[in-house]
Amino acid sequence: MRALYPGSFDPLTLGHLDLIERGSGLFEGVVVAVLQNPGKRPAFSLEQRLEQIRGATAHLPGVEVGSFDGLTVEYARQCGAQVILRGLRALSDFEFELQIAHTNKSLDARVETLFLATAVHHSFLSSSVVKEVARFGGDVAHMVPPGVAVDLARLFNRSSPQG
Ligand code: ADP
What we know:
The chain has helices at residues 14-26, 46-57, 72-79, 91-107, 127-135, 146-155; strands at 2-7, 29-35, 63-68, 83-88, 112-117. By secondary structure, it is an alpha/beta fold. Adenosine-5'-diphosphate is lined by residues 7-9, 13, 15-16, 18-19, 35, 86-87, 89, 93, 118, 122, 125-127.
């Protein structure tokens, strides 16, 4: 089976990456897809986010990277994915995620949503927390892949963590 892992990934965190790694052990293929949400103004361009994900997942066989701007179930169909993969960090994620899962099920009953519990040590991590820390010059090396740390330093005009 193939899974679609959709999200904003603005930017990709080690929590996202943990989910991708575990997903790639469960499925023959995992398509990580950046949702182009017209309602959100991302900090990183689509191309930057795709590059960040490609760089961080290069070691994972079976992982593909894409983007979409329509219905998730529609894109799942295009990718040949039977499962939508999502992460659950805490109770606060639950209500929103359940709402999307039920909506997607009502749109296409053949596509199942599968939730993986976030690794405990990543359960506090979110893209917005990472941006907040980086904005004020905090160290984000334990929160994001190295390439993303470089992009964050550049975004907030800080000296790059790799010199
Ligand atoms: P969205 O805007 O679609 O919520 P995100 O990029 O914030 O996009 O998240 C994409 C998916 O990754 C969601 O299922 C979310 O619950 C999950 N996720 C977010 N942060 C983490 C984390 N730290 N660990 C594991 N999964 C996470």
